[in-house]
Amino acid sequence: MRIVLDKLWVGCKNYTDLVGFGEGGWGRVLIAGAGVTSAIAVLGFLIGSILGSLVAWAKMSPIRLARGVADAYTTTLRGVPDLLVIYLLYFGGNSLLSTFAGFFGANGFVGMPTFATGVLAIGIISAAYQAEVLRGAFNTVAKGSIEAAHAVGMGRWLLFRRVVAPQVLHYALPGLGNTWQLALKETALISVVGLVELLRQAQMASGSTRRPFEFFITAGLLYLTITVVSSLLFRFAEYRSACRMGG
């Protein structure tokens, strides 16, 4: 039994030395990779929220063309693989930038920044899912409250700010929490265009040390930590929203 405990102690010490913050440890670069992952997910989710709101509005528009374009957007983005969207955006963006730069006399290849590509890709993909969540939440809003607001003479902007938006956000928060989780997991795909995020950093560390198990376990724990913290934040937001709605 003592031998087993000694081996476990040595194994734990070797692991903490490997992924720790001391000399020769990879802790700092892994934390930096987690920071890049979080930044891509947050910025991409915010872009998706803005774009998704516009798409949701278009899907409920009385204009047939707007509804058709919005339906085509959500159907396409939810139907094709996310990796394909990232490839198309990266290589297509590089081609457009190189062509555009050529008009001003630039020669050679001009590439898109990988971080911007990742944020934009996550935002475009997330918008398709958030649009459906927001559209469903709007359809759940009590029509009586809107009619009552019209009856007391509320303007369109005041009606949206005080009546519609709080209810839509209240009903949409659980679904938005799910789309956030999707955005967080999709960040792992951005490494294909050369961005060093958490998973890519774990791959590089495992290649350098030939100890992939330890690094991928650590990456999984960091992903789980981000997920747990963000889930708690969404639950708190849902609780505050329920309090404001009187639920």
Automatic annotation (TrEMBL):
Q: Which Pfam families match?
A: BPD_transp_1 (PF00528)
Q: How does it sit in the membrane?
A: Multi-pass membrane protein
Q: Which GO terms describe its molecular function?
A: transmembrane transporter activity
Annotated localization: Cell inner membrane; Cell membrane
Q: Which GO terms describe its cellular component?
A: ATP-binding cassette (ABC) transporter complex
Q: Which family does it belong to?
A: Belongs to the binding-protein-dependent transport system permease family. HisMQ subfamily.
Would you tell me the protein name for this molecule? Amino acid ABC transporter membrane protein 1, PAAT family
